[in-house]
Every structure is written in C-alpha cells, then in structure tokens.
C-alpha cells in the first residue's frame, strides 16, 4: 500500500491513462498520431521498470496492453495494417 502514496506511481498511471485516452480520441484518418501514441506508451513502461524493477515494468506493460487491445479490435477494419502491426507490437511491450 505504500506504493499508492508515491508520486511516481501516480505519474505512471496518469501518463498511461492520458496516452490511452488520447489514442482512443484520435480518428482513423490520422495515422501519424496513432503511431506517436503507440511509441509514447513505452515511456510509462520504462519509468515503471526503472522505479519498480522488472515486476513493475511488466505489470505496467500488461495494463497498457489490456487498455490498448480494445482499440485494436475496434480499428481492425478501418486501419487494417495498423491493427496488424499493433498485434505484433503488443508482445514487445
């Protein structure tokens, strides 16, 4: 429970949430922004890994992957190549 009192934890949670909301808000006709948001997802994972070790990094990666997965399903018809690329990128998280 001490983790919940740490500013770093809430920064990681907030940054992942803001990136996810931004990613879902971008329309299908803006591929640049989709790619940018996908790359920015690495920042909270790396910060969590440095701050909380391997377990923190993996837990953050799993949470981001679960948050991002519905977006892949939703956009698989409008952005088929991006959805395919994203499916292969999630295991890299």
Automatic annotation (TrEMBL):
Annotated membrane-spanning segments are: 7-26, 46-69
Which domain of life does the UniProt lineage start with? Bacteria
What does the UniProt keyword field contain? Membrane, Transmembrane, Transmembrane helix
What's the protein called, per UniProt?
A: Sensor histidine kinase
Which species?
Answer: candidate division WOR-3 bacterium
